[in-house]
Design a protein that fits this description.
Length: 369
């Protein structure tokens, strides 16, 4: 069978009441589906994306060569088998790939929101998705799966919509963003804000798409360091020098420098800087225990079977942060969870790259009752 990739946009006119007390109205959500929804709608799997991800999680668009960001995991006969499951992935509100975000037009003013866009939280992103699923007549799903910020969403679903999913699979994430991750986000936001071409948020998005934004590129380089590890950088680049550069040229480069430069400047042409600021803010203020007496208290809400997967050399969300989640579940005698730490030298991005190390765990989770 084919992947059956389809892209849709839903428009909502009812107000979305946000955690901050503000309202977003109206708003759009763009999403993609794969596979076929069965008659009783019992074969749905929701995928949640990370910071710079999108709804395009698998397959290739007609006019492009780059496959969706988890293409190795999702498709006919793959771990998340689209012959069996109906997979849906939405672009979160606040992002820049079609759902309403800071660069979207304000209906009544005919100009982009920019800083008038409200601060949104991970909980708000999840609430908007839940409203979308209601409109689609999907009131219960087999599983919600996500890594990094996608894992944060999956865990928020588990707590705030406890009867929505049978299984929650969260990878390379945390229960609350820690100072180390917030610090990397600070470097990125400062670099963006202090770039004169950012124009205090009043830049022309088309010019940014064409030329990029050097401040954002620099910020992304810093972020990229947190996605890798000492070992993965050593293996990938070692101390290799760029063959065309002289060792004693002041601006001669090591391969690792070229890599960061290429990724940083490239990234700044396809991701919107205001969306980056808003989404990193949502990540920074994420805390599962907000509104509860403790993390364990929040965990009491969960009724889904919970699968927690960390990576041993994740520098961004350390493996012990996931273990703290497992420990909180143990402390309240929750027997409906498993925690696995995957041995990996790759770093945080292992959840996107080293599929062979964890795909069987996802398959077992989906096949189990």
């Amino acid at each position: 069978m084919s992947l059956n990739l389809k892209t849709y946009t839903e428009h909502f006119t009812n107000p979305l009441y946000l955690e901050s007390g503000r309202i977003l109205q109206p708003y759009d959500i763009i999403y993609e589906t794969y596979g076929v929804l069965n008659e009783d709608k019992s074969n749905v799997i929701v995928i949640c994306h990370a910071l710079t991800g999108s709804h395009h999680v698998a397959g290739v668009y007609e006019d492009e060569t780059k496959a969706g960001w988890w293409d190795g995991l999702i498709g006919s006969g793959k771990t998340i088998d689209t012959d069996k499951y109906f997979v849906i992935c939405t672009n979160v509100i606040g992002s820049c790939f079609g759902s309403t975000g800071p660069i979207s037009m304000q209906v009544s003013y005919n100009e982009p929101y920019r800083y008038k866009f409200p601060v949104i939280t991970i909980k708000d992103m999840v609430k908007a998705q839940r409203i979308l699923f209601d409109r689609l007549g999907i009131h219960r799903v087999e599983a919600i799966i996500g890594g990094s910020m996608g894992g944060m969403q999956a865990l928020q679903f588990a707590i705030h919509y406890p009867n929505f999913a049978n299984k929650i699979i969260a990878l390379a994430t945390t229960h609350a963003t820690q100072p180390w991750a917030i610090a990397f986000n600070k470097v990125a936001s400062e670099a963006i804000l202090r770039d004169p071409d950012f124009k205090d948020g009043y830049y022309d998005p088309e010019i940014i798409k064409e030329q990029g934004l050097s401040g954002m590129a620099v910020g992304r380089m810093a972020g990229h360091i947190s996605f890798l590890s000492h070992e993965s950088m050593d293996e990938k680049f070692g101390r290799e020098y760029k063959l065309t550069d002289g060792l004693y040229e002041l601006f001669g480069k090591f391969q690792v420098e070229s890599y960061l430069e290429y990724n940083g400047y490239n990234f700044s042409k396809w991701f919107d800087p205001l969306a980056y600021l808003y989404i990193t803010k949502a990540i920074n203020i994420y805390d599962l225990s907000r509104g509860f007496d403790s993390l364990a208290d929040a965990m009491r809400k969960i009724t889904a079977k919970l699968y927690l997967i960390s990576f041993s050399n994740d520098l961004l969300f350390r493996n012990f942060e996931m273990k703290e989640l497992a420990d909180a579940l143990k402390s309240i005698k929750n027997k409906n969870h498993t925690y696995i730490d995957i041995q990996s030298d790759y770093g945080h991005d292992a959840f996107l790259v080293e599929l062979e190390k964890f795909e069987h765990h996802i398959k077992e989770a989906l096949d189990g009752n």
